[in-house]
Amino acid sequence: MSDPLRRWREHADTAVLLDGFHALKHALRFGAEVPVAVTTDRRAALALAGELAGDVRGALEALLAEVPEPAYASLVPRPHPTGVAALAVRPSREANLRALALMPRTAPVVVLDNPRNLGNAGAVIRLAAGFGATGVVTTGTLDPWHPTVLRGGAGLHFATAVERLGVDELPAGPLFALDPEGEDIRATELPDDAVLAFGSERTGLSPELRARADHLLRLPMRPQVSSYNLATSVAMTLYHWSATGAASPA
Ligand SMILES: C[S@@+](CC[C@H](N)C(=O)[O-])C[C@H]1O[C@@H](n2cnc3c(N)ncnc32)[C@H](O)[C@@H]1O
């Protein structure tokens, strides 16, 4: 194997960081191209793979290069308890747009309308991956491939199409926007080609997105509670989709 630190430097400017064993495991499972992966303890990392990720153990064996602790620490913002880090090639915008446009769609697209919290965005990508959603689209300025979003997504950006688009560029399909003022979601069956939109943590749905929505839906919530957290709202809505006749993730 060529010098891993040199390979790291070659890819650092264009690739995205996979921070920790689990992020690397997920990325490999979902077909990410990983040009370099390092660990401070190859034996321990491969033992973990044997225990938790037999399906990608061979790939990890071929990829993981052991580096001294200080070298590893110089590559990551803060050392991960598993002592594993890797770089992955970010899927092209064209590939993501193709995946988002593919019809017939077998699972919804989640839209986060101008999200502000990087941790929420990561949690939503993890949810979308778990439910087999077609993709997660963000509007506004937040970069859904920001390192903090990647950390929250646990390497699952590679399991769904993650892209930033304008409200006027959203994928086709009936647009269901979630808002406490909408109709009760329990009376609605969400189709597989649904586009499910959620508002910003601070200000809710933008006027542009509201104007484009075909349906406004509310999640059951007791009076005097103003709203749920963004990621938990996505979780409830995807669960509702999965439980009301659409394809099941498992
Ligand atoms: C934290 S909330 C936004 C709160 C914001 N202060 C507002 O004025 O709407 C983030 C998003 O979660 C979704 N959400 C939260 N609670 C909901 C509920 N009870 N019904 C439907 N959607 C909800 C909405 O899409 C909302 O825009």
Give a verbal description of the structure:
This protein is of the alpha/beta class. It folds into two domains: 4-88, 60s Ribosomal Protein L30, Chain: A, CATH 3.30.1330; 93-243, SPOUT methyltransferase, trefoil knot domain (Alpha/beta knot, 3-Layer(aba) Sandwich), CATH 3.40.1280. 37% of the residues lie in helices and 19% in strands. The protein is built from ten helices and ten strands. The chain has helices at residues 4-11, 21-29, 42-52, 57-63, 69-75, 93-101, 118-131, 147-153, 207-212, 230-243; strands spanning 16-19, 36-39, 64-66, 84-88, 109-113, 135-139, 161-164, 175-184, 195-198, 215-218. The strands form two sheets. It has a six-stranded parallel β-sheet with strand order 7-6-5-9-8-10, sandwiched between helices. The chain has a four-stranded mixed β-sheet with strand order 1-4-2-3. Strand 5 (109-113), helix 7 (118-131) and strand 6 form a beta-alpha-beta unit. Helix 7 runs parallel beside helix 8 and helix 7 runs parallel beside helix 10 (230-243). The longest helix has 14 residues, at 118-131. It is elongated and about 55 Å long. The two termini are 38 Å apart. It binds S-adenosylmethionine (SAM). S-adenosylmethionine binds next to strand 8 and helix 10. Residues 109-239 form the tRNA/rRNA methyltransferase SpoU type domain. This is rRNA methyltransferase. InterPro entries: Alpha/beta_knot_MTases, rRNA_Methyltransferase, SpoU_MeTrfase, tRNA_m1G_MTases_N. It comes from Streptomyces capoamus. One of its GO terms (molecular function) is RNA binding.
